[in-house]
Amino acid sequence: FDLDFDMTTDDKMYCSEMIYKALIVATQDSNYIALSNVLEKPYVAIDNLYLNDHCTNLFKYEYK
Q1: What does residue 22 show for φ and ψ, rounded to 5 degrees?
Q2: Beta-carbon count within 10 A of 20 CB
Q3: Which among 7, 23, 29, 61 is least surrounded, fewest beta carbons within 10 Å?
Q4: The pLDDT of residue 12 is above 90
Q5: Are 55 and 19 in contact (CB under 8 A)?
Q6: Which residues, 6+ apart, have CB-to-CB distance to 4 below 8 Å?
Q7: What is the pLDDT of residue 21?
Q8: DSSP symbols for 6-64
């Protein structure tokens, strides 16, 4: 697990980073998913993956 959240390496990754990098390879588009920044350090937040124009909601469950 990439505790440093370092997007420049592939030897360790966090979950959303792995999905992001797989999408970049599959689409051949490095701008397919936007990145977030904290303290000028880019990272892939979970909402970067699902709150974008490329995703479609298939199911929604609401707790009552």
Answers
A1: -65, -40
A2: 21
A3: 61
A4: yes
A5: no
A6: 12
A7: 96
A8: -TT-SSS--HHHHHHHHHHHHHT-TTSSPPEEETTEEE--HHHHHSSTT----------
Cβ atoms of residues 42 and 7 within 8 Å = yes
- The pTM of this model reads 0.82
- 36 pLDDT band, cuts 50/70/90, is very high
Give me the residue label for tokens 């990754």. 13
The Cα 12–Cα 46 span in angstroms is: 18
pLDDT, average across residues 27-51: 93
